[in-house]
Every structure is written in C-alpha cells, then in structure tokens.
Design a protein that fits this description.
By secondary structure, the chain is α/β, with parallel strands linked by helices. About 35% of the residues lie in helices and about 30% in strands. Helix 3 packs parallel to helix 4. The protein is built from nine helices and 14 strands. The protein has two domains: about 80 residues, 2-Layer Sandwich (Alpha-Beta Plaits), CATH 3.30.70.120; about 160 residues, Vaccinia Virus protein VP39 (Rossmann fold, 3-Layer(aba) Sandwich). The N and C termini lie far apart (about 45 Å). The strands form three sheets. It has a seven-stranded mixed sheet with strand order 10-9-8-11-12-14-13, sandwiched between helices. Strands 2-3-1-4 form a four-stranded antiparallel sheet, with helices on one face. A three-stranded mixed sheet has the order 5-6-7. Bound molecules: S-adenosylmethionine. S-adenosylmethionine (SAM) binds next to helix 3, helix 4 and strand 9.
Length: about 290
Amino acid sequence: MNEIRLYVSTTEQKAEQILDLMTPVFEDEELPIATSEIDEKADIWEASIYLYMDQEEDVRERFAALLKPAFPELAIEKEVIPDVDWIAKSLDGLKPVRAGRFVVHGSHDRDKLRPSDIAIEIDAGQAFGTGHHGTTAGCLETIETVVRSRRVRNALDLGTGSGVLAIAVRKLKNIPVLATDIDPIAVRVARENVRRNGIASGISLETAPGFHSTSFSRHGPFDLIIANILARPLIRMAPQLAAHLAPGGSVILSGILASQRWKVIAAYSGANLRHVRTIWRNGWVTIHLDRP
Ligand SMILES: C[S@@+](CC[C@H](N)C(=O)[O-])C[C@H]1O[C@@H](n2cnc3c(N)ncnc32)[C@H](O)[C@@H]1O
C-alpha cells in the first residue's frame, strides 16, 4: 500500500512547538506517526505525519484542528510515497550513499568511488542496512566522529542487520567488534558482507536476543555500543546497555523518530549517560551519549 505523508514546512522553532502539540495526541497510535526533519541546506524544518491512505481524511482533520488555532498561516501539504520494500530490495539500481567519508555501495558501483572514500560494499539481500535509511546514515556519520575523537578499543553493534555498521567501525580502526542480531538470517547476510569487504577477522557475529548471551560479558565491557533498533526497546534496555559500557565509553542510538528523542535521552540520562549530540536524517534521529 502507498503511504501518504501530510506535512507542514516551517521554521525550527515552530516545528518544535507543533511537535509538542502533536505528540500527546498521536504518539500512542500505531498510525499516524508524528516526526520532524531538517533540510540543513535550506535551513527549513518539516513537521510531518505519516499515515496510510484510508486514514487520510480523519488524520488531516485532526492535524488541521491542532494546527489552525496556533498557526493559521501554515498549509498542510500532501505527498504520496510509493511503497518500497527496502529489506527485500537489493542494491541493484540504488545509488551509492554517502555518510561522512563512508560510501555504501553495491558491487556494480565500484568504479564510482573516489580515493578518499571509505567504501563499504553491501548486498542488502534480506537484511536491513543498505545505508539508504536515515538511521543507518546517521549512525555511520556518528561512528566516524566517535571513533576519531574518543579512545575506542572495542565495539558492540547490537542489531547488526546487514553488518554495515560493524564493517564501518572495522574499516576505521583495527579493533574487535561483536555484532549481534535476533534474526539468524540477518547474521548470515552480515557474515557474507563482512567477507565481501575483505575483513578476514575481528568481527564476531552472533544470533542473540538483547543481551542474553555470555558473549557480551566475554567481549565487553565496550568502549562503543551502537544500537539502531527502535525507541521503545532502546528505552527498555537502557540499564542493561549501560551496564555493558566501559567507563568513558560512547553509545550511538538510532531507529528513533524525532518526537521520541527526549524519552530516549531521559532513559539514558537515568543510566548516567550524558547527551552529546543528536543528528537528523529524513525524520529520524541518531543520538550520541557518553559515559563521563
Ligand atoms: C533497523 S535494523 C538496523 C540494521 C543496521 N544496524 C543498520 O544500522 O542499518 C535493526 C536490526 O536490529 C535487529 N534487532 C531488533 N531488536 C533486537 C534486539 N533486541 N537484539 C538484537 N537485535 C535486534 C533486527 O533484527 C534488525 O536486523
């Protein structure tokens, strides 16, 4: 089914106010989902609602009723987003994606690489993580910043999917990486991608739900933990995740809608982590926190 996006384009300040109005009304529903995104070049923010076609009228009315009293000048726009099964889609036909110095590409795009690129070749197959999603791109950018600016001697990639983030860490620095996923198919795909990128050793792959494996204590504590999952499980696992982080370590969290970011930051502040930076990509945020 196609997705319909209703959105208003406005300033950063108004977008925040609109999100504050929308969050208590829409947050606990499966659909629609309130979010926001930034177009950094144009310095324009969008507050958006994503919904399915058959719910359009109802949601449009409710959104308008919230918006009009406070922001009568803003028009609600509509966009139809074609249904794309990102997980099943291979990289054939997808352009290489740039995130910081990383370029995630398929085997057919090797000739498009520049000498300064840190190339990651991914065949998406049945696992998430081609680099095209805002959460993966946000994690890649943040990994580059953290690995270059902090003392990172080992890393955990929780929810590795295609293995893209574990491969990224390993391409930047020759350190051991534990990469886990609840999905055995993802672990198989990740293993193939690790091999495809010429990484002979250093990445341990394992099927593991959450932190229920002795591998975490055997490989940890970790200087860097990356988890691109979803806001709710991330909030739930905050104490466990923090317990596997070494003193002075960093955490990179994604899979979080803009409207959910404060709840995630609050959960991790409660586990004694300090918020460093949040970056935005296509309505999704990636959060970097440090253990002091
Ligand atoms: C959004 S994908 C991220 C894939 C890749 N890391 C990326 O950034 O593109 C989330 C992955 O986390 C896995 N996952 C979800 N919950 C998990 C959990 N509690 N423990 C381990 N893996 C989990 C899913 O199977 C999926 O492969």
